[in-house]
Specification:
single chain; about 210 residues; alpha+beta; 5-stranded mixed β-barrel; 8 helices; 8 strands; about 20% strand; globular
């Protein structure tokens, strides 16, 4: 094998190791191999979270082993919690960003458990410095991303504690969120203690129908 071939193989191995570490420490699960298989078999449909992870291949591959978190796109402190999945963050340059938490959907404020979800999110972020891995910008101009505080994934914690749904439509490959919701349902945590919790996307659709009558 030529020196050039060995160098290329080493580079690929470093990139794959970096992606593995990135997914493990960010989500607690390694899924890139399933994504590659889906692409090869024509069943791609990768969600924005996967695309963002792929964009960070070089960064993750170059990172040294033992660095537990991805590099944040923005960081700062939370100055407002609008509801259980939307916050406003003030960065070091005193610029305010509206953040929609990726992969989750919390009850609307006029839904059962809506106020409780907002209170739970506020308790998780209050007085702490937050980092955000941005996935995209939505149609409302909000940044969509994953919040981290003290090494913890806030999006995941909201689902684990039963304060939000896994937003499967937009994050169908986020298996840690799926597992967290399954565990919360089985334990009847938070909103799952109710007799018939209504997903917020169904709630919003019903409200639109009522308003159009």
């Amino acid at each position: 094998m030529s020196a050039l071939s060995r160098k290329n193989l080493t580079r690929v191995a470093v990139i794959l190791l970096g992606l593995t570490l990135f997914q493990y420490f960010s989500n607690g699960e390694i899924t890139w191999h399933r994504q590659v298989l889906a692409t090869l078999t024509g069943d791609d449909g990768a969600d924005p979270g996967w695309r963002h992870a792929a964009d960070k291949l070089e960064e993750a591959g170059a990172a040294r082993e033992g660095i537990p978190l991805p590099r944040f796109d923005i960081s700062g402190r939370i100055v407002r919690v609008a509801d259980g999945d939307t916050v406003s963050l003030l960065d070091g340059d005193n610029k305010q960003h509206r953040i929609r938490l990726f992969g989750i959907d919390a009850p609307e404020l006029d839904q059962p458990h809506g106020d409780r979800a907002r209170e739970a999110l506020a308790a998780m972020v209050s007085g702490r410095r937050l980092g955000v891995v941005v996935v995209e910008t939505d149609d409302y101009g909000r940044l969509v991303g994953t919040l981290y505080a003290d090494g913890g994934n806030i999006n995941l914690a909201m689902v684990q504690q039963g304060h939000a749904w896994w937003y499967q439509h937009f994050a169908r490959h986020e298996r840690p969120l799926e597992a967290a919701q399954r565990d919360a349902v089985e334990a009847r945590r938070g909103l799952w203690a109710g007799s018939d919790p209504v997903p917020p996307w169904d709630w919003r659709r019903q409200q639109r129908l009522n308003n159009n009558r």
